[in-house]
Amino acid sequence: MGETGEKKPVLVDRYNRQVDYARISVTSRCNLRCVYCMREGHRRPDVPVEELHYREICRIVEVLGGSGVRKVRFTGGEPLLRDDIVDLVRYAKSVDGIETVVLTTNGVLLDRFLDMLVEAGLDGINFSLDTFDADRYAAITRRNLLPGVLANLESLLRYADVLKVKINVLLLRGINSSELADFGELARKQPVTVRLMELMPFDDHQIWRTGKFMGADKIFEKLGNIYPVLKSMQGRATEHFSFSLPGYRGNVAIIPAFTRNFCSQCNRLRITSSGRIMSCLYSRNGIDLLKALRERTDTGQLRLLFQQAIDMKPKDGREAGEAVPRTSMSEIGG
Ligand code: SAM
Ligand code: SF4
C-alpha cells in the first residue's frame, strides 16, 4: 500500500513471479559485428530500419512505471548509436515508479556520452568486453577498435563511485577462456562485477555449432582452479551465481543464460527494437506494442497489453522453446 492507502500496481505472472524489470532494445543497429551475435551483412546501412521513436519509448516507460516496473535497461543493438540516448535516460529517470535506469553498451562510443549520461542520472552500465587482446578483439567483433574501447573503460571506471559498473564477458571455449584470470584481475583492482556469460544460440548458428560453448559448470570449474578461495555470495540474484574474493574490490558472477537455472526467479520482460513485448528471451512470439502505440491506444489498454504478455510468460526458457528461430540478440537486446 502507498502512503495514501491506495494499492501499488504490480505485474504478476501465472507462476506468481512479480515482473518489475524491463529491458528495452532501442535499436537493432550496431557498430560491431560480434561473431556470436550478427553476420557481417546484418543490416545494410542504407536500408532504413523500423525502430521505436523517442516519444514511443518514453510512453512505454511511463506505462511500465505505472504498472509496477521499477528498473529499465536500455540495450540494443548498440544503444549509443541513438543520438537521443541521453534524453531517454533523463526522461526514464523522471518517470514515476522507475527507480533505476541502466544501459548495456559495447563501449565504442562511450567517450561521447559518458559525462552526459551520468548527469542525466544513469545508475549503471554493463560494458561488454570479451578480451584484452587486440587481435582477439578484432576476431570476435570483426572491428579493430580495442584501444578506444579500453580507453573508454578506463574513463568509465573513474565514475565507479556513482555508476554501478558490470563487465559482460561472453566466454567462448578456446577463444577467450584463457583470459579468465585477467578478468579476475580487473575485479581485484576495480569495484566492478565481472559477469562471465554462457553463449546462447542466437547467432544464425554460426558459432553455436563450432563447439565454442562453455557451460556454467565448466566456467565454475575453471574459476575454482584459479581461485580456490572463491566464496559464494547470497543476495537478490535473479540470474546469476555470485562470488566474492578476499581483498578484491569487485566480484565475479556466472550467468547461466543457456542452462537457464534461474527462470523460476525471472522478474523481467523485454521490448524489442521493433516494438514487440517479449515475456521471455526464448519466446518465439510477442505482442505488437508498436501498432498499439501508433494507433494512439489509451494507457489502460496499453497496460492490458503488458499484462497479456506477462500472462504468456512461460514457466522457464525450456518451455518457451529449444529451437529458437531468433538469429541475433540485437533486436531483443539480451
Ligand atoms: N551492443 C551492446 C553490447 O554488446 O553490450 C548491447 C546489446 S548486446 C546484444 C547485449 C549483450 O548480449 C552483450 O553483452 C553480448 O555479449 C550479449 N550477447 C550477444 N549475443 C549473444 C549470444 N549469442 N549469446 C549470449 N550472449 C550474447
Ligand atoms: Fe553489437 Fe552488442 Fe551484438 Fe556485439 S553483442 S554485435 S556489440 S549488439
Task: Describe the overall structure.
The chain is an alpha/beta fold and 334 residues long. It has one domain (29-332): Alpha-Beta Barrel (TIM Barrel). 29% of the residues lie in helices and 16% in strands. It has 10 helices and 12 strands. It has helices at residues 54-65, 85-94, 110-119, 134-141, 146-157, 180-189, 216-226, 289-294, 299-311, 317-320, and strands at residues 21-25, 71-75, 100-105, 124-128, 164-170, 193-197, 231-233, 241-244, 251-255, 268-271, 276-278, 287-288. Strand 10 and strand 11 form a beta hairpin. The protein binds S-adenosylmethionine and iron/sulfur cluster (SF4). Iron/sulfur cluster binds at residues 30, 32-34, 37-38, 76-78, 106, 128, 329-330.
Give the assembly state of these chains: single chain
Which regions have little confidence, pLDDT < 50, spanning 5+ residues? none
- Name every ligand kind in the structure: S-adenosylmethionine, iron/sulfur cluster
Give the end-to-end Cα distance, rounded to a whole number of Å.
33 Å
What is the element string, with H for helices and E for strands?
A: EHEHEHEHHEHEHEEEEEEHHH
* Overall pLDDT metric: 88
Mind describing the biggest β-sheet?
12 strands, mixed
Mind telling me the C-alpha Rg?
19 Å
Global shape: globular
Order of strands across the main sheet? 7-8-9-6-5-4-3-2-1-10-11-12
What's the level 1 CATH class?
A: Alpha Beta
Q: Which class best fits the helix and strand makeup?
A: alpha/beta
CATH superfamily: Aldolase class I
β content, as a range?
15-25%
Estimate the helix proportion, in percent: 25-40%
The number of helices is 10
